Amino acid sequence: MNLSFEELVTEGASKLGMVLQDRTISLLRLYGEEILLWNRSVNLVSAGVITDFAVRHFLDSLAVLPLLPREPFSMLDVGTGAGLPGIPLKMARPDISVFLVDASRKKISFLKEVIRKFNLAGIRAEQARIETWISRETHRKAFDIVLSRAVFPLPRFLELSSPFVKDSGLIIAMKGKSFRGELKDAEKTLIEKNLSLKGHVALSLPFVREERHLLVFRSRGEAGGRSQL
Question: Cβ(145)–Cβ(172) under 8 Å?
Fold first, then answer.
């Protein structure tokens, strides 16, 4: 791909049905440069140059953007790692409230530095195992959106995320081509957690043509809601 970072993000976003502001693209570049810097001592992501982030990390993270509510909302990113997808979504939607959770102390230190350095308001990062939150009933039913970018097997993700989403909220799993098997494995969990699949968006990641699937779950009996589905 003989395109600049800015060209990849701009054209890729357009292919995914999005228009990103110049400020968002500039912030994403700075964020990518910060990841590269920290990657020398902390294993954050598998990428060697800034253009690697444009498609496989940033566009991949932002693909969920058209599904999200137009009005401000609260979002929990479970197992966020280097801040994906939470930080790119926050950069694209400054009006939303974002909570980043990861068990790695080094990764949370990185995220806190990114939040401070880029003066991002309305976003927090906390080192925690989400299982601990469940046992303490911390943030129970506190978020409009709970999502994760292919960190957990689907049954485990639904089990971990369901305590934290509001009754009218959404759980969004960002998956690759193996999603069908994961959905089959999650049938029992969906029944136990009173959840149902309310939306499935299949897409091809621009430039690399990799298969992506966005699976949207909602509490059974909850109709309508605030998402774009």
Answer: yes
5-219 CATH pick, 3.40.630.30, 3.30.420.10, 3.40.50.1100, 3.40.50.150: 3.40.50.150
Distance in angstroms (rounded) separating the CA atoms of residues 219 and 166: 9
Nearest to 98 by CA among 117, 114, 118, 120: 120
- CA 226 from centre of chain: 18
Question: Between vectors from CA 113 to CA 56 and to CA 75, what angle results, nearest 5°?
Answer: 60
Q: What is the mean pLDDT of residues 2-10?
A: 94
Task: Report the Cα–Cα distance between both ends of the chain, in Å, rounded.
Answer: 33
* Helix, strand and coil percent figures for the chain, each rounded to 5: 40, 25, 35
pLDDT at 29: 96
- 77-118 pLDDT, tens digit each: 999 999 999 999 999 999 999 999 999 999 999 999 999 999
Evaluate whether 198 touches 229 at the Cβ level (below 8 Å).
yes
pTM of this structure: 0.93
**What residue spans define the domains of the chain?**
5-219
Q: How many residues does the chain have?
A: 229
In this structure, the dihedral spanned by the alpha carbons of residues 60, 90, 156 and 174, taken in order and rounded to 10 degrees, is -20
